[in-house]
């Protein structure tokens, strides 16, 4: 690719025009009249009808019986839902363009380094009159101004930027430019003015990456150029597929560019030399202390401050600071090392408190860590906040481990705000305890991974707490923070209390819990305030939408139902829904579906021997039989959900984690010891982790789950649920799992969307 670059200032008219596809509209109207999208609305309705097609699963090889399912009234796709879908899709396109634009600016920072070199000997005023100096001055003012950038400033910034960069890489959207963009453009201006030009090999490597950005931008413009937002292109879901493809290409680009950035740096850069020095791009070491980046890396420190603001909220202060670790569990390890140090100061070892709903992996680490010290943590019911508060004030434990919202089956909430308010009250404390800094401390440890930015305890006024009470939170950054891209394992610990972060930083160094440089580069490129806020709102909306839809469907059922309950604290049916309103600002990103297996204790299955149908009554099921049959049914339920999704062009992934762009589902086990209706140890249930898809995808997922429950519930009523499950599980290809009339299935799969149009 031949990219022309001049050290002379180009005219605005010559160089500010964005890349265009022939015939593409200059501006993309996100909200055209709804009637424009009637064909697309009918196409979605066809998807819903297809889910409702008559189901026939044939197992002639073994039983020779046929299970037939007659669907209820098909779901409808309203004009209001279509309008919402239209808006959300436009927002997704706009968001991807914004992220591509920012990635392009960061690449140009390397590519255009030294384009308008600084002239030594010029005064400050004279330097500001040069092409490079003017750009530095403009971007610096916008970056450091306290007020948001105005529309006039945006347009001027876009114009001045496009004057100085190759036409091929011009920035197309002034509306995208914000304070965050002014920061990276300021860095671009500094590199253009004060940096050294890259050699030919480096420029070629960067050109390869930037061409890939141009290809994605061109594809997005082609989508916009269709005349309507959702066109027919032979396949009804052409645009959906393309957007998934472009999002994945963007993820790959992030990884490639992070590797390029790392290749330009040194693990142990110098802080000076007789020549240029081995400092590396965008890195510097701290003089006379350490060359090693695992100890001192300025980019990591900048990233920590940014993450503190975005994840915890607010700027860092003396009372609250965040420390970046190479994973959520290693952040916990750093905290446990801090507690060991605190316990060593005490004349006798103090107790450790924890609630019973701690995440299982965290719980295992806590138990094992204190077992080695002959300490057994005291377990509390998370709902018994009054009892926990009383014990804390009387017994002065070293640490209290809490979870704002459990990801276990019942998803219990802990009233953390209530606990903090009570600890701030001077009444009830141990009489000899005084709020002196050198006294023994109590650490409130909060695992915030399940809620992230939705947790309201982050807004508590921590200055109200006595000085001997310290709050430390930790969370995995691979869940919600990385735009659903899962680029690098990372964790964040936030210490609240005077100098509370210093021990965590020492523990990170001593334990070797530093984040690798490549991971830091990926997080630098990914963590963006506006995209993170939008992502969390979409996760919460989708979680609430799916849970409410399924709960309403379950409440309307009068006959047998395999789904027994929907568990989400924000539902009115949850015993802590009022507490959830106080403790959270959103539904989060997971909910659970309970399955009723009580019938399996003495279940009778309809059987076929030759042409004769027989029924036989099982004896009381053994624990092994109960376990195997419940696993079989739950696994088949999930498999059928995935099959339906695949047939209607919807992506759902099996997986146990959450916080990704695409919805994940998994079969989990819950402990049922002590429950009166079961005599066994555990039974399966479904965990749903909604992604950030549009309302259309959520509607389809909801309808697929409802229909799958209808199918299994009907099979239960007809005493054929086990044979149905076996039929689903044994099928290895889509051809073998037949939906509807076997002879017409393939033809219908090719034509159902076109017929709707």
Your description of this structure?
There is one protein chain. 45% of the residues lie in helices and 11% in strands. By secondary structure, it is α/β, with parallel strands linked by helices. The strands form 4 sheets. Strands 3-9-8-7-6-4-5 form a 7-stranded mixed beta sheet, with helices on both faces. It starts with 11 loop residues before the first helix and ends with a helix. The relative contact order is 0.10. The model is unreliable at 1-41, 53-67, 227-236 and 732-757 (pLDDT under 50).
Observed structural traits:
single chain, 757 residues, alpha/beta, 22 helices, 16 strands
Write the layout of secondary structure elements.
Layout: H1 12-15, H2 38-51, E1 55-59, E2 65-69, H3 79-111, H4 124-127, H5 131-144, H6 151-163, H7 179-194, H8 200-224, H9 238-263, H10 298-313, E3 320-325, H11 328-345, E4 352-355, H12 360-371, E5 378-380, H13 385-395, E6 399-402, H14 416-424, E7 442-447, E8 469-476, E9 491-496, H15 500-511, H16 517-526, H17 529-556, E10 563-567, H18 577-583, E11 591-595, E12 606-609, E13 612-615, H19 623-647, E14 653-654, E15 664-671, E16 682-689, H20 695-717, H21 721-730, H22 745-756
Parallel strand pairs: 4-5, 4-6, 6-7, 7-8, 14-15
Antiparallel strand pairs: 1-2, 3-9, 8-9, 10-11, 11-16, 12-13, 15-16
In short:
This protein has 757 residues and is α/β, with parallel strands linked by helices.
